[in-house]
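This protein record is not my work; I was only asked to verify it. Where you disagree with what is written, explain briefly why. This is what I was given:
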Amino acid sequence: MLILAIAAAVAAWWWFSREMPRRQHQREVAAEMAAVQAERANSLYRWRDDNGNLQITQSPPKGRKYERISRIPKDGMEVHGNAE
């Protein structure tokens, strides 16, 4: 009976030591994907079309440079020292 209990404990240890890192990795990947989706949901994309007109859209343009801007305003004021 003692040998059977030791074998069961070793089997449980082996199973959980193998499964836990995989589950942790899956949770990390899911958290990263959720963060990316949340960031995209709160973003607008600013870019220029072929005529030079400013466009602001909810999805990024394909094959163009764009700037991601947040829909949520920042707290406080932001002051830059460059005078243009």
Q: What stands out?
A: The first helix runs from residue 2 to 41.
